[in-house]
Amino acid sequence: MWIAFTLPAIAVYAIVGGLIVWSSVAYRRRDPAIVQAARFHENPPLEIAWTVIPILIVGGLFAITYPAEHHVENLVVSPDEVVQVVGFRWSWRFLYPRRHVAIDAKEGEPPELVLPAGRTTEIRLTSSDVVHAFWVPAFLFKRDAVPGRVNAFDLSPTKTGSYPGRCAEYCGTFHAHMSFNVRVVAPDAFERWLAERKSSS
Ligand SMILES: [Cu+2]
């Protein structure tokens, strides 16, 4: 999709920029006696072309965007895990409602969202004060955390590892402190982690 958007954009830029440069060079005023520009009214074939071609481009981009967004927005009916993510000034809380586990930041450390690899986790994202945004660059995913509203999406990480996350919506003085970490672990390690959390709390 990135290529499908970028190539037509480059072509449109080249045509428009090229025409501007070409017309300002080719039709510049050579004879100082000429003060009146050429005047004409209409050019139906040109007008039809500059109406129909953009409509076709926008229509084509819409046709590929709609199913792609549907794919990204789509929630599986029964996710393997559910995590409620709450953004607040100035950190994050991760709640595993089915597991009765809650994760908060420890002093001086960002909070950590732990996800099982190869499983689908439904994230229910909200905020308790102002608008924040949940952003994990490695997942190519960002979504606003809006007070009074739950934004649900599925994450299905496949590779184990640690991925830094950030608040991507300026939310006040300590916005920059709102980092978090996503740790993706094998499903059995995920179960062990949950058991440890439960016994320690
Ligand atoms: Cu924030």
Provide a brief overview of the structure.
The protein is 34% helix and 28% strand. The chain has 201 residues and is of the alpha+beta class.
What does this protein look like?
This protein is of the alpha+beta class. The chain folds into 2 domains: 2-73, Helix Hairpins; 81-200, Immunoglobulin-like (Sandwich), CATH 2.60.40.420. It contains 3 helices and 10 strands; from the N terminus they run ααββββββββββα. The strands form 2 sheets. Strands 3-2-1-5-8 form a 5-stranded mixed β-sheet. The longest helix has 30 residues, at 44-73. The protein is elongated. The site of copper (II) ion has 7 residues, from loops.
> Cα-atom Rg, whole angstroms?
26 Å
Q: Catalogue the unreliable spans.
A: none
Proportion of strand residues: 25-35%
User: Number of folding domains?
Assistant: 2
